[in-house]
Amino acid sequence: MSFRELNQRILAPAAQGLMIFGIISLCQPWSLFLHQYGVTLTLVGLIAFMVTSKIAPDPEKDEGFIEDSLDTLDINETSTPAGSSRGGSN
User: Fold this and answer.
1) Residues with Cβ < 8 Å from 15, sequence gap 6 or more?
2) Rounded distance between C-alpha atoms, residue 56 and residue 69, angstroms
3) Which of 23, 24, 25, 74 could form an S-S bond across to 38 if both were Cys, CB 3.0 to 4.6 Å?
4) Averaged over 2-25, what is the pLDDT?
């Protein structure tokens, strides 16, 4: 697994989840600890999301290019070169 794939699958969603958890921590009335650090959790999640969103995903392999190249090769093999005759008679 490449770092870019790890970022897309785990790090970016974790940063989003941390932001959401920070907002929920601010709104809940039961735990003073979570309420005190809710803004910090939200900011850390926001900064992590800003960093992870700048990392581009893996480029996808273009398999159509290979098929197009093979089609072009087939066409070039069946065509005759310019100026030559196939029949052998002039």
Assistant:
1) 45, 46, 48, 49, 51, 52
2) 28
3) 25
4) 93
CA–CA dist 51, 57 (Å, integer): 13
d(Cα 90, Cα 86) in Å, to the nearest integer? 10
DSSP secondary structure string, 14-35?
HHHHHHHHHHHHHH-SS-HHHH
The letter for the amino acid at 65 is F
Our CA angle for 18, 56, 4, nearest 5°, is 70
| Separation of alpha carbons 25 and 20, rounded Å | 9
pLDDT, one tens digit per residue, over 32-80 is 999 999 999 999 999 999 999 998 887 877 665 555 555 555 665 666 6
